[in-house]
Amino acid sequence: MNANAHAANRQPLPLTTYVTVWVALLMLTGLTITVASLHLGAWSVLAAIIIATVKGTLVLLYFMHLLHEERVFKVMLFLALFTLTIILVLTYADVLLR
User: Fold this and answer.
1) So what's the pLDDT on residue 33?
2) What is the largest distance, in Å, between two alpha-carbon atoms of the chain?
3) How far apart are CA 19 and CA 23, in angstroms?
């Protein structure tokens, strides 16, 4: 299936979906600010990373339309994010074990 046929078969998401995702992103931004002001110590970074991951996932799935893309794009994105996760885990492990 070529790109034009793939785009022609795709139905646009309703406006309410985009508004719902936008409101969720606003709420998660508020949660990020709230968590930052709680001074959770070492857990602050983990909480910020988890919230940012959820926000990034929402943006990727809905605003970048990854939810309706072909499997190859999803696999390539997963591999890139998995590599980034490994790099972050190794970096934090290095800092913590010094």
Assistant:
1) 94
2) 55
3) 6
